[in-house]
Amino acid sequence: MNWVKNKILNYLLKFTILSVVIGFYIGTATAIFLLSLEVATNYRANHHLIIFSLPILGLFIGWMYYKFGTAAKKGTNLIIEQHSAAKKETIPFMMAPLVFITTLLTHLAGGSAGREGTAVQMGGAMADQFTKSFKLDKEGRNTLLIMGVSAGFAAVFGTPFAGAVFALEIMLFKNCKWQDIGPSFAAAYFADYFCTHWGISWGIHHTNYAVYFAGINFDNLISAKNIAWAMLAGVFFGFAAFLFSSLHKLLTKLFSKIKYEPLRPFIGGAILLIVIILLSNTTSLDPFKFIGLGIESITASFQKPAGNYDFLIKILFTTFTLSASFKGGEVTPLFFIGATLGSVLICFIPLPMALLGGMGLVALFAGATHAGITGIVLGIELFGMSAGLFIGLASVLAYFTSGIEGIYSAQLKEGAKYKLYNYFKSISKL
After folding, report:
1. How far, in Å, CA of 309 to CA of 325, rounded?
2. Helix ranges restricted to H, 69-137
3. Closest by alpha carbon to 298, among 328, 332, 339, 333?
4. How many CA atoms lie within 13 A of 21 on its CB side?
5. In 3D, which of 26, 235, 48 has the Cα closest to residue 145?
6. Which of 37, 210, 302, 334 has its CA at 20 to 30 Å from residue 423's CA atom?
7. 430 vs 57: CA distance, rounded Å
8. How far is it, in rounded angstroms, from Cα 355 to Cα 390?
9. Run of H or E residues at 86
10. Which residues 6+ apart lie within 8 Å of 270 measured at CB?
11. pLDDT in tens, 258-269
12. What is the pLDDT of residues 235-255, one digit of tens each?
């Protein structure tokens, strides 16, 4: 009995210390990353000619991974694979500085990418370095990887609950143990705390999306008809998520035909540069709103309709950028796509524009990442509990209508949705 008690106490002490340590390092690293990203974004916004460096910086990014990041080029998929792998290999620490630097270069030059992939990869790589020093076994190491992912996601978006659930969900709940839950939430909380602390000191902050819901009376909105409208919107968001994931896979396959890897972002950057120049000179579109994070376009879509094709152009820009091996993440671009699509759906779905934008922001994420539960938690954290019913419905419908081609290929054939699709496929043949 004493042996069991001592084992539990040892576990609690070990992972409490690890939660604080990982939270501090990843929260601090993420704060530095967010500050650097803001500087790079502001510089590009004030110096549009920097986009002419897209091919050259793309070549440098490709060379960096070719020379130093053979394993790290798998990105988030490497962390997911290592969590479920029978033979464990330490995630190289080089992944953290590599993705940090190359993401900044991607945004500086004008690539269309996000930031969560960077934070999650930094988190996983940094956390895994503590495996040997804390003498963790296979299960302890798996818990550590979950903590790294939850800490990175929580810190970059300021959403500790969503970060903790996201880490458990993308690793697939069936592969997780009950012992993973507490450390995942603790690491997410501490990472968010330290990132927020540094953010206040350095003048950086997370976007407050909830302010756009201030004038919505949700009690008056709840009705059978509006619930049906919310479900229909979720289907549209699911189709957009399917388009994003499918196009990303197709373009990645096309770029893989270029055998010398550093040439992929060089050629991709050159093509992207030509497209930006053509759009600038031959259309009324402003191509610069489709590069980088696009936070201004996201927040604007809560207040006025976006362009009818903004979400499609962002899908093209982002899938092309990431498939060409530029670095960053998919989630913030998914926010852009969902929010702008939601604001367009106001044309025939009679729900408040801000609500449709918020539903789309979360539902695209839920569908493309195969993280439906995280989507609901993220939506409540970003927009408040009162919006939970509509955001939840949109997320669930988007999750089930987005196909099985998620953005994380490592979880493609193991998740619940894949099994559900196979079940319906099998009974349809009877």
Report:
1. 25
2. 76-84, 95-109, 116-128, 130-133
3. 339
4. 15
5. 26
6. 334
7. 55
8. 8
9. none
10. 54, 55, 58
11. 999 999 999 999
12. 999 999 999 999 999 999 999
Counting Cβ atoms within 10 Å, is residue 419 exposed (0-12), middle (13-18) or buried (19+)?
exposed
- What six digits make up the tokens of 242? 């399917």
The helix/strand/coil state of 272 is helix
Query: Contact, 153 vs 116, CB < 8 A?
Result: yes
- The half-sphere exposure of 340 on its side-chain side, counting CA atoms within 13 A, is 24
Contact 296, 100 (CB under 8 A): no
341-373 pLDDT tens trace: 999 999 999 999 999 999 999 999 999 998 899
Q: What are the structural domains of the chain?
A: 2-202 (1.10.3080.10), 211-423 (1.10.3080.10)
Token pair 């953290």 in the structure block, residue? 96
DSSP state of 212: G
CA–CA separation, 305 and 149 (whole Å): 35
DSSP class per residue in 258-269:
SSSTTHHHHHHH
Residue 79 is predicted with a pLDDT of 84
H or E stretch at 215: none
318's tokens = 């982002």
Whether the CB-CB separation of 409 and 197 falls below 8 Å is answered with no
Task: Label residue 111 left, alpha or beta by phi (over 0 means left) and psi (-120 to 50 means alpha).
Answer: beta
**Residues 265 and 102 sit within 8 Å (Cβ to Cβ):** no
The C-alpha atoms of residue 316 and residue 285 are separated, in whole angstroms, by 15
Q: What is the pLDDT of residue 288?
A: 94
E strand or H helix at 244: helix 224-255
State the chain's maximal CA–CA distance in angstroms.
77
Tokens of 187: 């690491």
